[in-house]
Amino acid sequence: MFDDVTLSAEPLSVDYAARRQRWEPIYEVTQMKGDGEAHPFLSPEDEFADFETWDKGSFGTQLKTPDLLPREYAHEALKRGLAHQRELGENPFKIGVVGSTDSHTGLSTSTEDNFFGKVSALEPTNDPIRKEEAITGALTPDDPSGDITAAYSSASRLAAVWARENTRKAIWDAMNWREVYATTGTRPRVRVFAAYDIACAGNRGPAADHRCDAPVGNTVDPENATYTNATGAPVLGAYWTDPDFDPDQHAFSYLRVIKVPTPRWTAYDAKIFEVSVPDGIPA
Question: Which of 34, 133, 164, 217 could staple 231 via S-S, CB 3.0–4.6 A?
C-alpha cells in the first residue's frame, strides 16, 4: 500500500503524491485479518508493535519477505511520507487511520464476547471449522505455510470519527479532514504515546528511560474468560509540550491508547464450548 513506485512501477511524482493525498486521506490499518499499524521488525523498541500481527499470509504466488514490511505498515508509512515530502514537495502518505470489521455476515457482532466470525460458516460453534478455516489462500493446495486460519481472526475493529454532528455530511467531512482513529477493542478516548510515556496508571512512575516502570496489570483468567477492572485507571491525563518543536520541520505526533488486557474471543469460545485454544493463538 505504501510503495515507492506506482502500481505500474513508475516513480512517484508530485502530481501522483498530490492526487493520492486528496483521494486517499484515510486508511484501514486494522481489521479481521489482523493489524497493519506497526510491526516489531520496524519498531524494535515498541513493545506494543506486535499486536495480532499475522504477517505470514499471502494472496499471491509468493510468501512475504522482510523487504516488503516497510511498505506495508501505517506507522512506517507516516515516516516514509515525510521523506517523500522532502523529495517531492508533496506527501502521498499523509493519512488518518480507521479500523473495520471486514465481516461478511451483515451482523454488528464485533466484540470479543460476541464474535460471529468473517462469514456465516464461522459463527460461534464447537465445530473445528470455526478455528481451522483458512482466511488467506495457501500458495498451493499441498503447501499450507501461507495460510492464516480463522483462529487468527481479530474481533472488535471499529472506525472512530470525530464528527461535529451525527449527519452524513458531517461524518464525511470529518473523514476527509482525517479526524478519525482506529480501535481494536472497546471505545477509548486518547492517551499520548510518543518517544516516552507521560502518564502511568496506579503507582507506576516513569523510569529513568521515560517509560512506565512496569506494564499495566493483567487480570485475565483465560480458563474462565473473565477479567476484573482492578488495575489501570478510569481516567488518565497529563499535560505535555514538545521542547524541540520546530514549526519549519515536517513531523507528526503519534498517539496510541493502551488499555488493560481483556479476554480474546478464542478464550470465550474455549470456555463456552469447552474446546481448546489452538497453539500460538493468544487468550
Answer: 217
Per 3-state DSSP, the chain is made up of helix, strand and coil in percentages (nearest 5) of: 25, 10, 65
273 vs 131: CA distance, rounded Å: 12
Return the closest-CA partner of residue 17 out of 73, 97, 95.
95
- pLDDT tens-place string over residues 182-228: 998 777 766 444 557 677 887 787 777 667 888 888 899 999 999 98
Contact 168, 175 (CB under 8 A): no
Please write the tens of the pLDDT for every residue from 224-244: 999 988 888 888 777 777 788
pLDDT number for residue 257? 81
Give the number of other Cβ atoms within 10 Å of residue 50's Cβ: 14
Residue closest to 100 by CA, chosen among 180, 31, 148: 31
Instruction: Match 499499524 to its residue by C-alpha cell.
Output: 37
As given in the structure block, the three cell numbers for residue 121 are 460458516
* Rounded CA separation 112/264 (Å): 6
CA–CA gap between residue 216 and residue 73 (Å, rounded)? 26
